């Protein structure tokens, strides 16, 4: 059973089954959102959702946490490139910060 999950996890990384969600973090002092929490999610091609607690712990167990983390950073980089194309992004979000969570 564990071997199958490891295989499924590797396949998910290679087949882009992961996606990210952003949760804005509100700063009361500045009265604005100045950061966002980044959540990695997994939905298989068959439509099955996997809870982050499950796949992150198993990624650590199987030595796949580094490839998974690099995959996450690639997503964020792609998103930031798209946002940077918007002129107002540069001025408005120049000091925007991201945090990572399960």
Offer a few descriptive terms.
alpha+beta, elongated, TIM Barrel, 4-stranded mixed β-sheet, 102 residues, 4 helices, 4 strands
Strands, total number: 4
Radius of gyration: 16 Å
Query: What name is given to the CATH topology?
Result: TIM Barrel
First-last Cα distance: 23 Å
**Into which percentage range does the β-strand content fall?**
25-35%
Low-confidence stretches: none
Helix-residue proportion? 40-55%
Number of helices: 4
How many strands, what sense, and barrel or not for the largest sheet? 4 strands, mixed
CATH architecture: Alpha-Beta Barrel
Outline type: elongated
CATH superfamily: EAL domain
CATH class: Alpha Beta
Secondary structural class: alpha+beta
Describe this structure in words.
With 102 residues, the protein is of the alpha+beta class. The chain has a single domain, classed as TIM Barrel (Alpha-Beta Barrel). 48% of the residues lie in helices and 28% in strands. The protein contains 4 helices and 4 strands. The protein has helices at residues 2-14, 52-61, 65-84, 87-92; strands at residues 18-27, 32-43, 49-50, 97-101. Strands 1, 2, 3 and 4 form a 4-stranded mixed β-sheet that branches. The protein is elongated. The model has no long low-confidence stretch (mean pLDDT 82).
């Amino acid at each position: 059973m564990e071997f199958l999950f490891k295989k499924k996890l590797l396949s998910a990384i290679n087949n882009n089954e992961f996606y990210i969600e952003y949760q804005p973090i509100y700063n009361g002092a500045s009265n604005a959102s100045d950061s966002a929490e980044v959540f990695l999610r997994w939905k298989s091609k068959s439509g099955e959702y996997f809870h982050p607690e499950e796949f992150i712990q198993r990624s650590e167990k199987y030595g796949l946490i580094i490839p998974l983390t690099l995959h996450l950073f690639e997503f964020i980089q792609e998103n930031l490139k798209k946002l940077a194309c918007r002129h107002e992004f540069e001025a408005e979000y120049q000091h925007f910060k991201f945090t990572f969570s399960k």
